[in-house]
């Protein structure tokens, strides 16, 4: 969730940015797997999405049935058919950093129904993006108006998120009756999402020369109290509207020390709390502060969760159509996703996309070709029946 790049947050670019680099061509009418690989093979680590954003815009802007708007490196394409309802189908185009050596370009392992596409972004979440692009081009007259959203900066701090920027700059572009986020769900439906809260727990000490350690107080040693509380913590499983969300409280970083011969006067333990959507942000913060009472707790990043929303009539209709083709039943989304942003806008939303979410961000990230076809066909069926 970090990037060393400086994000491009310019807005309202209605034409491709001037660049000396040729725009990559995406074939939206060809083979879906080939399109998927082409989208993945354009590196787009958070903060460096311009090349892919240019390619997406260049592919969509010539389509007469779509109205295309660009905001920074986010592209929004809309139909205006006068339908009685509008669905927003969204996906982020950025990825976490590549491995060393890079896990791009993609490669195909296996054949036929067993084939998998390996490489960065194959799970999180360029499969969903490729499906969006293919359907945006082919569905010239869907049964409801559709807003296709391709946005940047999802894999970094929430205040940089491209969907959040669109909500601030152009909230009218995200208006709809229902939203689908193409995050990986192994071709199932995942409702809502956990919230996330990241804090720094600051442990004080007193500096001294390490040769006279008794003259100081070692903050790193004292941090064992924080770590003991985390080790003893038992995360809850909380049912919300029929789905059970598993919470989590974990140290994700620790920092301390001044020099090799100095007793440190501070140690900072970074803790990430994933909490069920039944909790508000203030509730989650209070819970964390209570756990670490006696220490200074500084909130560094926070985003609320989203309730499942599957009782909404449109969401229920979508679930019925999709699950009749894919099987299974709705499940909770344990990670945070931008369905929470749609929930804040009053738009019910679900997660639905190809790829096993357990493989997101892993070095061996890979997506079955079968997932890709299944999600494409289910969305196509729902938008045309």
Automatic annotation (TrEMBL):
Root EC class: hydrolase
Q: Where is this region: Disordered?
A: 1-20
EC number(s) on file = 3.5.1.18
Q: Which Gene3D superfamilies match?
A: 3.30.70.360, Zn peptidases
Pfam families in the record: M20_dimer, Peptidase_M20
Residue ranges annotated as compositionally biased, kind Polar residues, are: 1-17
Q: Is Cell cycle among the key words of this record?
A: no
Recite the UniProt keywords alphabetically. Answer: Hydrolase, Metal-binding
Give the Gene Ontology MF terms in alphabetical order: succinyl-diaminopimelate desuccinylase activity
Q: Which residues form the Peptidase M20 dimerisation domain?
A: 195-292
Taxonomic superkingdom = Bacteria
Q: Report whether Magnesium shows up as a keyword of the record.
A: no
Coiled-coil positions are: none
Give the protein name, as stated in the record: Succinyl-diaminopimelate desuccinylase
> Highest lineage ranks of the organism?
Bacteria, Bacillati, Actinomycetota, Actinomycetes, Micrococcales
